[in-house]
Amino acid sequence: MWFLWIPVTLILIKVLNKFSNGKCYSDNVMSGQVVIVTGANSGIGYATALELAKRGARVIAACRDDDKGNKAVESIIKATKNKSIKYIHLDLSSLESVRKFVDTFKRTEAKLDVLINNAGASGMGKEKTADGIVRDMQVNHFGPFLLTLLLVPILKKSAPSRVINVSSILHKFGTIHKINEEGKYGYLQAFCNSKLCNVLFSNELARRLEGTGVDVNSLHPGQVNTCLYKSTAIEKLRSLILYTFFKSPLEGAQTSLYLAISEECDQITGKYFADCEESNMSLKAQDECLAKQLWSMSEELVKLKPDEMI
Ligand SMILES: NC(=O)c1ccc[n+]([C@@H]2O[C@H](COP(=O)([O-])OP(=O)(O)OC[C@H]3O[C@@H](n4cnc5c(N)ncnc54)[C@H](OP(=O)(O)O)[C@@H]3O)[C@@H](O)[C@H]2O)c1
What we know:
Elements lengths: L4 H16 L13 E5 L4 H12 L3 E6 L2 H15 L4 E5 L5 H14 L5 E4 L17 H23 L3 E6 L20 H22 L5 E7 L17 H8 L3 H4 L1 H8 L9 E4 L2 E2 L9 H14 L9
The protein binds NADP nicotinamide-adenine-dinucleotide phosphate.
C-alpha cells in the first residue's frame, strides 16, 4: 500500500504549488488598449494574449509561423468573442523581419500601450544567423532589443505605456562576456546569458526613458510547463514532472498580466518581478556599466541607425 503515497504526495505538491503561485488580482479592463505579445501562439504568450483579449484589449500576436499565429488568433477570438485580435508575422532571428513587423504595425495601428517581449527559445542551434548573430542570442535578446527601440517613438507618443521583458531566474547565472562568439557556450549557458541581457536591457531602457511615461520592467514567470522544455534532455520524464512541479501556462502568465494590467504598477520602472511582486535581480543585473556595455554592443550588432538611437 506504500505506493499509494506516491500519487498522494504528488497531488499535495501540486495543491501546495497552486496556493504559493502569485496571481494577478487586478480587475482592470483593457478596452481601447493596444498590446503586442511576441510568441503569442504558445505557452505563456498564448495564455497572456488570451487573458488580455478577455479584458477587451486589442492584441497583436507577433509570431514567426503564419499557420500557428493565425490559429492562435482564431482560437482567442473564438474563446473571447473579442474580434480585434490580429496576427502580424515576426521572426526575431531576422533583423529584416523585425523591421518589417514594425513597419506593418505602424501602418495599421495608431498607438501602442503595452509591449510584452515574451518570445524566447533555447537550443535553436549554435551557428550565427544571416545577420551574423548567435541564433539563441538574437531570438532572446538582440531581436527584442531592435523591436523595442523601433517601437519607442510610438510608446512615447502613447504614454503612459509599458514594456515588459520576460526574463528568467536563470539570469543569475548569465554573463555578457563574448556572447556573440559562435560555439562559445552550451545551450543552457546561452539561455542564462540571454536572460541576463533581458534584465540589463530592461534596466538601461528604464533609465533612458525616465520621465517619458514609458515604464519598463522584467520578470521571471516561474517554472512553467510549456514547449520550452520539449527540446531538452528531460523530455522523457516530462509529463508527470512538469505537471506536478511546474506552473500551468496561465499561472506562468500571471506576472506578465500583473505588469501589463495592474494599477499598482503605474510608474513602477526598472524593476524585476516574480510571482506578481518585486523580486531580487542578481548583482550583475544591477551593474549599470555592464548594461551600457551591452547597449553599445546591441546597437552595433542590430545596425541601429543614428536617428533610431535613444
Ligand atoms: N517555461 C518556463 O519555465 C520559463 C522559465 C523562465 C523563462 N521563460 C521565458 O518565458 C518566455 C515564454 O516561453 P514559454 O515557456 O511560453 O515557451 P514556448 O511555449 O516555447 O513559447 C515560446 C514562444 O516564442 C516563440 N519564438 C521562438 N523563436 C522565435 C522567433 N525566432 N521569432 C519569434 N518568436 C519566436 C515561439 O514560437 P514557435 O511556437 O513558432 O516556436 C513561441 O511562441 C520565454 O522568453 C522564456 O525564456 C520560460
